[in-house]
């Protein structure tokens, strides 16, 4: 690609005119430069911007200099420019020292190996060195700051999305950027059956969606933008195809398409689902779920391993700068004085003192040549000084980016080969070379080069293997583990992407074997062990289970090797969960290997959990037989009757109170350890729950014992579940909770009611266990799903004229934001939060929430597990696995009964909403800080609002003195949770509350029981959600909708016609105005020509007047007669004879021979003839002059008359 330098003159030519007088030297322009590459202009002003060349308000450039050609791929160039955005920021812009010319120079150096012309780059410094420049510097700086504050930059140039360089990298300059990245996928168009078969064959290993459309289909056109956008969202993993059946008749016949839009999905080459209609939400949710099924999540990603699952991993860099003068003095006289060394030294010093923004890249080609010659010229004892100088400079991303794209990596490979070739490599040289190699990762361009290029990867692998064997110097092992950490984390990031890992498997096996051997031998350095464990973890995390690396880890007993390290470091505490600080987006090591986070015991646990998952079999699809067998004893749903009739009492409003049950959990290990007492007792007959007074021995209840009044509290609920002592005969199992509560509410769902069950209580009280349970003890939600599909299967066998449709959704409320748990989290991107809307009929709902169709228990359990894995959890002092969000799992059940005799259709819709609330907590008890403290604050806020809503619904305001009831204000909208549960708490729903309490905490348990006691008084207004339509009504509705569609189509056609007429009128008006302007311009030109002609004729007239005047004067004053002397000359007069000519006349006399006849006599006739000729000539001249005057007068009158007319289109007042 050609690289051009665009040069602008900000002075508009004034610099060339005034510079000599003001500055004392000639300055041709105030240079503003940018780089043009592949029809994109890269310019630095208020940040790095990309525009179309010459499209800014500066106009076209003054010069367009061709700097050369680059062979770098555009993707690499774009990535390098992105890495410069942290250096060339709006705040770092300096008119004299860090401006657009510095950016152009650095980018040109990266692309071509040389910068921009020196007179352009040094222009600001030359101005600043002049007296006038120093005088004007404060005013100019103040002006620049004002411009930056006003318009974001000195010139106010903003990026043009149409010139997106990422789009250029994909071959399309007009593709709009999405979050800094171009859409990787596009919609494929199949014109015939052969093309469609080829596209489906290419998607056999993944998934595909076919969109059947027609050019005349209005709803189809509405979905085109969404479908095009959807093609890019699943990271290019799904193949989205569009087929116009009006052209591809053979495709429509094969797939039996009768209406548009129709969608058909394919998974691994097999058809999965088909539907018709313009349902954008269903299309989006189905596409996302299809990608999840085609590319299942690795089993490691279901583990709680934030060390390795975090996509934000920064490399380990060694940025400490030693005393450069002392370092260079050790090189020796010749090398120390080399200009390349001095330039690098100056660059490092400026960068260390003033920051990267003020440091201009030196001549990198010269330094590269110096490095390659140094390995030959310098002794091995001082070679470490050159490598260390190289290390210090490589910290800069611009510097390392240049060497990342060097042909053959000849400089870095030369250094590595030199070190690898030393039989006894000095300690200092090995250490700084390891650190230098770590600093290669400062540029985002180098990881790919290290992993993919064998000429660079092979010497690094060899160097690492030998460095791990240096048992004498732990600093070498620390640096080696840092380098391996950089390589492994980079490969792990690539492994998560769709392109897959790029480090060859053979190298992974070699590196893993080396680090396992080093771990087994490490006995002294905790820092080195930290780095080795982290590197091994990234090598093993999400590795394909069929790879050779898995076999190596099993063969070398990697798990046993790591577990042995726990015994060698007994002074460290055992930490079961990874500390929250491990989520920080900081490097794991400091500049020289100092570890900030985390402790190595946490990493040992995480590595062991990863290796344990590797040793186990791959996770298979969860089947219903893996769960505990649960048989429903509930009554048969009413719709399972053959006639499908609805009892009369169900068609009316069914008012009822919220059902409240309470459940107490068993002691936790920490409660047993402190000797806590159980403060709860329950009567299984009367359902009475009693909270007893705590004693003084339990420190957890010290706050409660300071109360002035402390007595027993008793509450009566609908059910009291004693789950404290499993040996008790009244112990309530998970099955008992479901049989008492879940079955009844599932009956209500089949009857057509909305239902809601939510668990409430403090953190660690057993809410998640009650709702979700464990694989061997499933909770309320999985049991409800299993029983649901068992009933559907039984009903379909008994009454085939009833069809059932089940859909599910799963979301969480985290920090007052709604996040879809069925949508996978995209690495390196912020979570996408959904918006809440409220419908007049349906109430509050979540916009764009994924609702997936489910057909059996296996599918719904798979979605549930996927959502659970995405849910936000963390460890606190109160709970090892604390839910940091409220989770809502919703099942939509639609039952359609068609009566064959009456041709009537009855449709019932019900919703099962199962809510797992996060527990209330006190910061003092949980000792939460930072993010955990913010999460707890939002949890408490939502639960406090829930309590206020419960109080407002349970105890309405009393009547006022006037006898009129005041309007109750229920604070639903004070929290996202209560807003979403508005319909469940006080609307169209049958609701149950499970109050989960801890057996030993008096204060928290009392608060929970009081809330539950209030909730008993809430009364809902549940109704059957049923539509019964006869044939006549259905036909009438269809006819009405068809008429409405026809009216809308006519309206749309009329609107389009008006828009078309308006557009045509505007075009005619514009054409008329252009004609008027052209005529006016023509008249002006003709007027100017006429005036010129008039002036020319006037000049010619004056010349003729003068000529005529002279002619008249010659007539008035004719030439006098010539007197000829006829006397003969005297004989003695010698003088006269000498003066006489041969013809007898004198020399000097003016005698016209034309007036003499042949005899020498004077003839008057000749004179008269001449006079007559002159008179005739003057007469003709006067006649021509008269005609000429008349012509001038006529032309003047005509031109004046034309100029006095009004232009066409100008209104004249009459």
From TrEMBL:
It holds the Pfam family Thioredoxin. SMART domains: DUF862 (SM01179), KISc (SM00129). Residues 657-1018 form the Kinesin motor domain. CDD domains: KISc_KIF1A_KIF1B, TRX_family. Residues 627-652, 1127-1150 are annotated as: Disordered. GO terms for molecular function: ATP binding; microtubule binding; microtubule motor activity; peptidase activity. Belongs to the DeSI family. Residues 163-292 form the Thioredoxin domain. InterPro entries: ARM-like, Kinesin_motor_CS, Kinesin_motor_dom, Kinesin_motor_dom_sf, P-loop_NTPase, PPPDE_dom, PPPDE_sf, PUL_dom. Residues 1-141 form the PPPDE domain. This is p-loop containing nucleoside triphosphate hydrolase protein. GO terms for biological process: microtubule-based movement; proteolysis. Residues 1128-1149 have a biased composition (Basic and acidic residues). It comes from the Eukaryota. PANTHER family: STAR-RELATED LIPID TRANSFER PROTEIN 9. Keywords: ATP-binding, Hydrolase, Motor protein, Nucleotide-binding, Protease. Residues 629-639 have a biased composition (Polar residues). Residues 308-585 form the PUL domain. The keyword Lipid biosynthesis does not apply. ATP binds at residues 761-768.
